[in-house]
Amino acid sequence: LCFHVAFRSMVPKPAAQVNIDSVTWPNLLQPIFPLLCLAYLVERANTRLLRILIFPLALFTSLRSAFYYVWIGPQFTIFNLGKAYLIVIFFSLKAVDLAFYDDRNHGFCEFPKIEKSNPINEEALKSPVGHVVDSIKRAFYIICTARGVGLEYGETIRYPVEFRPLEKKPFLLATFRELIKNFLQVDLIDTIFKLTPGVNIPGGGSIFIASLSWPARYLTATIYHLLVMHLIESSIKMIYYTFTLVGVGIFSQSTHIWPPTFHPYPLFTSHSLHEFWGTRWHQFLRRVLYISGGYPGEWIAMRFGLPRRFMTVLGIFIASGLLHELPLYITGHGLNGKMLFSFTANAVFIAIEYQWGRSTKRHAGGLWGYLCFYCFLFLMLQIVSDQYFVRGLGSAIFIPLAISPMRKIVVPASLYMGRAWGWL
Asked: Under a CB-based contact definition with an 8 Å cutoff, are residues 36 and 140 in contact?
């Protein structure tokens, strides 16, 4: 009973959720202080016990901010989902990482390779006030960095090749161009969703439009699935480039700590699932997925004598499935496990690719690698895209109408020209 009460105080039923307004919005900031304490202490020796004691407060405030306070209404589904994903990833799972990190393994936040990426101003260490400010800046950096750029644990990530000049002004200009480009792409895809019957149903539709025949239904679902994948990619880039402009332009951070997010055209250049998830797709969840899924998988493998590699990969994808599935609870449509199943199936297919490589002495790739990857992409991952539409992605606000060039200018102009020329 006590556990149930504690759980519902963090993750209430949809009817008990509190609307975010001018009075309640400061509650979203509750996790920041315990997270800052964890990030500060993780670099100090012999602080693990203290960090573990702070962890329940950090977890409680994080989950409460993610699920308890929401914008009421189906039109805010995307905002609520985005808030839940960001808080769960950067607060809840980051709290697990920081609290249980073994401080005997020195170097959690060392900068061994990219000295220019160190956000610390050594001049500030000469004064007590500067030392405090510097420690806060460093703690914020530890919390906010997802890939660990410049940190020890980020050395194993294969970052995309930088396509922007590293001088500050040209870098900011190139980043701004990329931001505008991805904003327009997101706006275009969002407009397509809003104009499609069966997809734009308030409160939840589906990419499998029931009024179509099965071949047309699957073809349409495939097109919308590709649009969803591109929407996710462009949305992540848009948010990332916005923070890049803030970090480099306002806080004068080094351009070295803001590498690109994705390898070019990840959906069309991947030869296998392993290459897609391990290299070409974004790596923002790499650390948190290993901590929350890969490490427990390794422990189970060693404890029960199971294949260590497979259990690690299985644990990572189970954690990924849960990470993508559980925040959907905030939409009020419940959970059905389909997204968890889809992500977990990745581990099985990657294990098949690995066994293929061991038996043939060749890495998965080539024509068969492409075929297997696209079969999985168009069959299993469509489940993920459809689950977002079932929970109202197609009708929810993504780009507000007031700043949407497509719906304010392009669509009205196209309708006017179509009527004027007799096409409509």
From this structure: yes
